[in-house]
Amino acid sequence: IERAILGFDQALKTIYGSKHSHTAYPAQVAKLSQASNAGKFALTDAEKKHACALMRVNHVGEVCAQALYNAQAVATQDPALKKHFIEAAKEEGDHLAWTRQRIEELGGRTSWLNPLWYAGSFSLGLLAGRFGDKVSLGFVVETENQVEAHLDEHLARLPAQDWASRAVVEQMKQDEVRHAKEAQMQGAIDLPMPVKGLMKIAAKVMTTVAHRI
Question: Taking the CB of residue 144, how many other CB atoms lie within 10 A of it?
């Protein structure tokens, strides 16, 4: 019962934004630079709307990451691996806070479907965990590899003068690459191509829907 209560509390904090960053907000320096060049580099309303939609997708990705790592921490019987998943979730929690803050700065909102995204990813995390720790870690590696590619795409699509959003995405990308490497060092297996393909399809559906809703 206690674990269920703690899990429900974690879900509420993730979905409704009570999480706070444990590390510095990457966009702070970029925001100061933008403020000092407000006339030259100001974002138009259309650019703000576009950047906000991209950051909403990134926020949904972090909601899913929280659910995935928390579920895998529940599923594993290895205390050291459980600690690893919890620490990874903490770092992803920073990303969650950063993306939410940037969305608010751009005058936007997070996805209305966050409870659905969380529930789906938590279920996938539990399912992956049932096949063993190496499969669970392999799921992390493939997820982080796809997220890295997705963030690269967003860096290409964000307005050139939106330094603040770019700073957030760049730091997120560095962290995701490290998470994938750490999972490989823990003994992750390479997932079968059909599984990778299904994950890409699911990610495409999520990003397309989250961009609008």
Answer: 22
